Amino acid sequence: MTGLYLHGRSLLSALGNDLHEAATAVASGGVAPQPVPLPGGTEWPFFRIAHPETRWRPRAAALLKAAVEQAGVADRRDLPLFIASSSFEIGATETGETAPLNDCYSFAEEVAAWLGWQGSVYLVSSACTSSLHALLAASAHIRAGASEEAVVLGVELSNRYTLSGFAAMQLLSRRCALPLGTGRDGLVLGEAVAALHLSRQPSRWRLCGGSTRVDGGDPTGAVPATVARLCRETLDACGLSATDIDLIKVQAAGSPLNDLNEVKGLAESFEQLPPLMSLKGAIGHTLGASGAAEIALLLECLEKGVWPPVSYPFDPEIGAELARTTPAKVRYLLAVILGFGGGYAAVALEDCHG
How does pLDDT run across 295-349, given as a tens digit for each residue? Predict the structure, then answer.
């Protein structure tokens, strides 16, 4: 993947309606999730994007248009567009604004219509790994000579169906997510829309490469050996060694078992773990959008010199902690996303200004 770079990027999340607002919120300590009631009398914390529109479809269209504009590709609608989502427009179905989807690709067609997109449109849906799979698919598209640039759009918007499903599986925290923390008791979900513009033209951040794995042995949990294999394959694909990595953005969403197993897998690939960081406590687990959303936010934090605060004790059983401050040097970073269905994905990025 030599010669592929990330240019414009954007993020709309609970931290704010652009990356500048997000970095400012991170610097000031983040934001608290808001309670969302569900039928049956339960309520769960959720990281929601603040937006004046209350109707699902007009709100979704406005958020997607803003993401494309902020990424600097509003006038590049002829580029290939890779849309990543795991919940599509289920929120609109819940509110009665639209009938259930005939097929998932109709959502991609609607997004393209909202944006007035003229280039080819692809839909990627692989649960939580969707955005990273879309980024790798876009890079393969460029490497194959099909285009010189592409846009990845991660979309995960609020709906009670997804929240109810996670609650039914007893995967949610009733308070807040504590990645790698003592007393962690589950995830906190969130919504996000993020865009990444990928191009052959040089810029600060180079996409070194990536890898994906599927391990059906535990479709809802992380398998340490598979995490280790994912890391080794990603490093091999990038021509890097474990000692080259200066920072790992981990999945670590606050799961009692998965956080532990993820770190076990990382420890198999790294004789000495580099600094670790998680963004799930800042914006929530944004599912299909999480790869694009977390990369956009991570790069903004590194460029602005801000860091997600960590104010809780870490679990000594895990044997690793999240970095409390920005590492002194980050030339190469590894971003890991793990997902339902036994999906694993990772990419490595290089700071060419480092």
Answer: 999 999 999 999 999 999 999 999 999 999 999 999 999 999 999 888 999 999 9
Half-sphere exposure of residue 291: CA atoms within 13 angstroms, side-chain side = 37
Q: Which residues does 58 contact at the CB level (< 8 Å), separation at least 6? A: none
What is the DSSP code string of 170-183? T-B-SS---TTBTT
Question: Closest Cα to residue 348, out of 340, 339, 337, 338?
Answer: 337
Using CA atoms of 258, 260, 261, 262 in order, give the dihedral in degrees to the nearest 10: 80
Residue 3: predicted pLDDT: 81
Output the average pLDDT for the chain: 95
Residue with tokens 């599912």: 287
CA–CA distances in Å: residue 189 to residues 56, 78, 138, 205: 18, 33, 26, 28
pLDDT tens-place string over residues 157-208:
999 999 999 999 999 999 999 999 999 999 999 999 999 999 999 999 999 9
Q: Is the dihedral of CA 281, 181, 326, 134 positive or negative?
A: negative
Spatial distance between the Cα atoms of 97 and 58, rounded to a whole number of angstroms:
10
Which of 337, 289, 341 is CA-nearest to residue 131? Answer: 289
* CATH numbers and ranges of domains, the chain: 5-199 (3.40.47.10), 205-351 (3.40.47.10)
